[in-house]
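Notebook entry, structure prediction.
Reason for the run: the old model in the group folder had no record of what sequence produced it. Starting over properly, with the input documented here first.
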Amino acid sequence: MTLPLVFITGASSGIGQALALRYHRAGYRLALAARRVSEVESWAGACGISPDSYHIYSADVAHPESIVAAGQECIARQGIPDVVIANAGISVGMDTSVREDLDVMARTFATNNTGLAATFHPFVDAMAQRKSGTLVGIGSVAGIRGLPGHGAYCASKAAVISYCESLRGEMRPYGVRVVTISPGYIDTPLTRQNRYSMPFLMQADDFADRAFHTIAAGSSYRVIPWQMGVVAKLLRVLPNALFDRLLAGRPRKRRQNETQ
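New structure, fully documented this time:
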């Protein structure tokens, strides 16, 4: 009997690695897409993951042909995955008055949005023909309401949520599930650079465990942890004037090359 297969992007650190380890412990074979292949190999060895239970595909999701090729190679080498998790993403602050930050926004969309769709692309028809499979988009609570200084990231994650909702309707007739997971604050190298408070901060392993069960249940949308879901809903219904006053003076996300 062939073990189930999961394809995960952004597997070189943070949430991607935590998800990979959780799926490995559940008995899945791993197809891991990452730019830093050597780091994934070192991590897998340190975790005691047998080399015959995973394969690493060198890919950059910001370049559609790169991640599409990785997905096609995965199908040829390991078969059609049971679960595909488009996890890779970047988060950089921006100031619209700074010309260079327009390039930051373009790079953010290329990675977080076009890269997500390109990740799914090689598997959509194959899963539809098989009439089974799960496509998972990693959004963020930051996609629920725009935060000052986070324009690129918030906009990209709002787009992830809407895109996955659209795709869910498209894939439903074929028996393919689309799951959207919006993390709150997860303790990763990325969030450790934040210079503002992070309520309900969650360890990556705990997040991965809850995400695993959410995906297995086929939930269409879930905020993890649930407390951030409540916070996000409250922020969503706040009148704009009150929301703006609440966030006035809040520290902003670091921009590129910004250290202070």
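Summary: Residues 5-247 form a domain with the Rossmann fold fold (CATH 3.40.50.720).
The old model has been moved to the deprecated folder.
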